[in-house]
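Researcher: I'm preparing a figure for a lab meeting and need a structural model of a single chain. I don't have an experimental structure, so a prediction will have to do for now. The sequence is pasted below. Please return the structure as tokens so I can convert it later.
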Amino acid sequence: MSPTHAPDAEQEIHRLRAICAALNEGVIAVGKQGDITLANPAAATLLQTSVAQLVGSDFGTAIPLWRTGAATPCNAELMERVLHGGEHIEGHPGDGMKFHPSDGNTVWLAVSASPIMEGAATVGMVILLRDIRWEQRWEAAESQFISVASHQLRTPLTSMRWFVEMLLGGDAGAVSETQRHFLERVHSGVDRTTRLVSSLLRLSYAEVGQIRIEPISKNLNEVLAQVVQRFIATSPDHPVQATVAPECPVPMLLDEEIFERVIDVLLKNAAMYSAKGAPISITCLMHNAAIECTVQDAGVGIALAEQPRVFSRFFRSAQSVQIQPDGWGLDLVFAKLVVEAWGGRMWFTSEEGKGSRFSFSIPSQGMRQVSGIRLDVS
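Model: Understood. Here is the structure written out token by token.
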């Protein structure tokens, strides 16, 4: 840089630092080696420290960030994905991470990260931290309400089903065709509501980490082949190609039922939002000490504006509602929570009109065992 441009560059740096300092959200810049090169006052306040203590310290040790149920902080994963993979990560309340300051409290943060580029080279990353404790409290209260309401609804729904079935069976006398028509409509509605209540209960248990996961030694190739075979038996209109890379550990610790539930959610979505006969692929590869399984389709895709809400409860994209009006937008949320409970993560990429790729990971050592309630996962 020539001397005549140096003052302009310095002014620009001071201007950017002033903007950064004025932001209400925490901003941290991390160098290529993992050292914190910049932090604004909001970040220091969130992390209950000072800017002076943050700058120059190691990102992994100064700010250990934890996902729910994780055995180790996810800082190394963030650096791998952003610094080395060039990935842009957008944080949402549903993907909140925990930080434990010295006072013993828990700070919930939505963490976004992007690489800092100089030409074609990645020289660092910038991290945005947003306090989501109020969102977490609201979601906790909402989850508790859903759980209580779902439990209270199960008994009357079961009674309604029994009485309708007794009426249809003629236990209270002969039923005319008109009466049968209306009773069958009631029975169908009760069944649909019962399935919704079951989905809400599964989700409420998953949100508090109480879905039991019991991994045992299984052959990944065989388990995946069985899952695909069962799916094709019920959805013959879509050919499915499954591939497991040779480097993937076989056998490994898996909970077969839970694994099938996650794969089945992704396969059903891929089939539902793809044209009849469109192929679906499942690929399992080793990456960063984890097995990454990806379900890819060539369907309608998800609009860019809607993608941040994909893992939100009750969210359904405009395209999905047009194709399949029925649905509650709960299965993907459940699948993501279960994946995180066993020690993995779930993410996706999608382009409207071209299809989607939904991926999840399993640690190379296998799924983490989780105690809790063994719910019906069908």
